[in-house]
Structure formats: C-alpha cells, structure tokens
Amino acid sequence: MRLKSLILGAACALAFSAPAMAQQLTAITGGRVLTGTSVIENGTVVIRDGRVVSVGTGAAPSGATVIDARGKVVSPGLVAVDSGLGGSEISSVGGSDDLRNGANTISASFDVSYGLDPWSITLPVARLGGITRAVVVPNHPGGGGGGHAHDDSDFAGVGHGGFQSPSLFAGQAAVIHLAAGTDILVKPRVAMVAPFGEAGAGVAGGARGAQFVQFKETLAEVRLYARNKAAYDRAGLRDLSLSRADLEALIPVANGQMPLIVTVRRAADILQVLRLAREEGVKIILDGAEEGWLVADQIAAADVPVLLNPISNLPGSLETRAARMQNAAALDAAGVTIAIKGNEGSIHRARETRYNAGNAVSHGLPYEAAIEAITVNPARIFGMAGQFGELRPGAAADVVVWSGDPLEPLTIAERIWVNGQEQAPTSRQFLLRDRYAQGGEGAMPPAYGR
Fold it and tell me: What values do phi and psi take at 395, rounded to 5?
C-alpha cells in the first residue's frame, strides 16, 4: 500500500505539470494583489492557457475554478537573478557543477543552457520559496556566491592554440522557469558575463589597467572578424586571440545588442566600467556594486541596472570598504533599476531572495521598490518586460498565494502556479522526511517487513 501511495503521489505531481491543467480557467479572488507595479485590494487574478487573462476587482468569470485568497497576498512568482539553479547540484562536486568552464577555446561561447537539469533537487526547494523563474549565469573569478576565488594561476597569457588563457569572459546566461517537467529553458544567451575589478585584474595579468586594454583589444578583434568573415575562412586574416566560437558569441556584445553582466564592487571600478561601456558602445549590467551608493547618480545617468545583494555590508576586501545595508535604498532613490539577489549563488539559498528584499526595506528601500526588485525588474533588465514577473494580461501565469506578507520570513507560499500549471507543494527534503518519519516505502530493509 505504501508503494501504491507513492506511485499515486508521483502521478499527481506529474498531473500538475500536464498541459491540460494550463487550459483550465482559474480565478484567484479576494486577496491583496501585488501586481509587481501596483497593489489591488480584494483583487481577482484570472489565468488561462498559461497566461494571465485579467487582473482587477471584478467577480470571477463564469465557469472558472475559484481559489479563495481572502486574508492572503497574491503576487507574481519571484525571479532569482545571478543564479545557479538547474546548473549546479553541489558546487564542490565537479561532475554536478555545469556553471564553470576552463577550456580556453570555449569561453564567451560557453552556453549554460546546455547543462541545465530539470530534475535538479534545488528547483523544488526554490519554488517553495516563491521562486518561479531564474537567470542562470556561469561562474567566474570573483562572481556571486557560486563563483570561485582566483589565484595567481589565473593570470592571462597565450594558452593552447594561441588563444587567451583564461579568457576575460565566463560565458552566456539563460532564463529558466521552475515548473515541474522536462524543459525548463525559457531563453538562452540573454547576456554575456565577465568579471572586472580585482578579479578581472587577476584574469588579465594582475592590474586593472591591463584588463581594460585587453577588453578593448578583444572587442576590436571581434569587430575585425565580423567585417572579414570570408577572409577568416580562407586564413587571410591575422591571428586572433579568441576561437571562432568565441568571436561569434561576442558579436552581439560588441554591437550593443547583448548586455554584458559586469561583476564589479569598488566605486572607482564602477566609474571606469561606465566609462568603458560609453567608449565602446557596450550595454552593461552591474553585478555586485557593493559601493554603488557612492556613485549612484552616475550609474543612474548612464541608465545602467544593478544586480545586488542588499545584505552585503562587511568590508571583506579592499573592494568593499564602503559596503553598507543602505546600498539598495540609495541606488533606488537615485533612479537606478535594481534587482535583488539571493545568497550563495542563489542555488540552495535562492529562497532567501525575499528575505534580502525585506532587509533592504528595513534599511530604507520602499516596500513597492523591493517587490519590483524581485519580480518585474529582472524581466525588464533582461529584455523580457511584460513576459513574466508581473501580474498583467498576457504575462506568463506565474502566481503565488502567500499566507501573509511575502517579505516576512514566517510567511509561506501556500499555492504556486508556473505558466498556469499549479505545482505540487513538495521537495526531496519533504519526501525524505515523510519516508523516514512515517515508515514509508524504503524506510526499512525489506526483511523487517516480513
């Protein structure tokens, strides 16, 4: 009977992800609706065919399955940025970590979308924290919580085949959804990733100035290649420091079409990166920016968004001497579009994204801005505004019904929809708990049941 129950439970979980569920007309009524950009009291959210149909104060449409959310909060699904969800299971186990690549011929062209695992045990845990989408980024020296620390062996030079070793570029990010199923990829190659500041200097040879020169030279080579592909094919072009795959991957960066996620912390480095982007016509997204509050006006004037962890407030290095908890509030007040990150690479602790947003509110960030920073802003930053992260007609039906304020730690996500499909409220941890606490199938060796 235990085995039959487990099989039935698994079947139910799969049923939640079946396309037929997305066809059902569902109305979530009576809750305090946080649309991502506004608040609707006693609101009604109607979803069908995987999309939001309407958001307002009207009654549920005829024939709809009604979900009573009175006394609860309804919000868009949260978005984890600078995340490793689906790309890494255990960062210290190399075979389970597909976020970092060491080949000198595949750097900028490294595409994390090919290593995504829809069965990763980290996805349901994050989903239970209200996370329904994530921007998955490759690791690199000095990166977010999932990044690795660089050492002297990271210094650049000519590696195998005459190519850069290591490269200035870590690879390309992807957007995923967290619904149960076999295909979690939403969009690959949404941004290029590169370290600057102290970590970037280490990659380039030890000095910040060296990295900027190398970066400019690399973009010059990319543009040369783009203009002379026929000559390159017949070996009629001078030797270049990147492989063909990497040159091709960097063309949209050099053309200002693909944003470059720049990990940078120190205020002085932020200003130099802004200058570099202006001189080269490159579209950038700042990642980290712990000292961003010191140059918030310049960041805002450049119309550059920032991915940040608002609880980074300790001078862990000389790059973060001025880190403070008011960073998010100061950047927002200056008019910078911000997205709030989770902790430790936003993988196992991705669910703490909302806790970090709550901490930012306690240090001056307006509540509405904090909600935007974990819902609608990530979509805006990565060129997908209106597609997710917001409760509006036509957007993906990523909806969470909360027991209370989503920024309060004791609040839980009671019901979760991704692309209009309601998700089973479970995870591997819950299954293991129930297996051993209740003596379920496999809790004891078969001989004990005889």
Answer: -75, 160
Please check whether the domain covering 78-387 is classified as CATH 3.20.20.140. Answer: yes
Q: Which residue bears the tokens 């802004």?
A: 274
How do beta strands 78-83 and 131-136 pair? Answer: parallel
* Element spanning 149, H or E: none
**Are 139 and 113 contacting, i.e. CB atoms less than 8 angstroms apart?**
no
Residues 6+ apart with CB under 8 A from 290: 265, 308, 312, 319, 320, 322, 323, 327
Which among 103, 257, 105, 101 has a CA at the least distance from the CA of 189?
257
DSSP designation for 61: P
Measured CA to CA, the distance from residue 111 to residue 82 in angstroms comes to: 15
CA 418 vs CA 105, 173, 412, 424: distances in Å = 37, 21, 17, 11
Positive or negative torsion for Cα 152, 155, 157, 163: positive
Instruction: State the Cα–Cα distance between residues 442 and 450, nearest whole angstrom.
Output: 14
Residue linked to tokens 């690795």:
148
User: Strands, E, within 277-317: which ranges?
Assistant: 284-288, 306-308
Cα(161)–Cα(233) distance, integer angstroms: 17
Residue 224: in which H helix or E strand, if any? helix 208-227
Give the pair of three-digit tokens for residue 386.
């209106």
pTM above 0.85, yes or no: yes
Q: Specify whether the CB–CB gap between 388 and 396 falls below 8 A.
A: yes
10-residue mean pLDDT series, the chain (450 residues): 41 43 81 97 96 95 96 98 92 81 86 95 95 93 46 44 67 96 96 93 87 94 96 91 94 97 96 97 97 98 98 91 97 98 88 96 98 98 96 97 97 97 90 78 65
Buried-exposed string 40-58: b where 16+ CB fall within 10 A, e elsewhere: beebbbbbbebbbbebeee
Q: What letter does residue 424 receive in the DSSP assignment?
A: P
10 Å CB burial of residue 379 (0-12, 13-18, 19+) is buried
What are the structure tokens assigned to 123, written together?
Answer: 């996805």
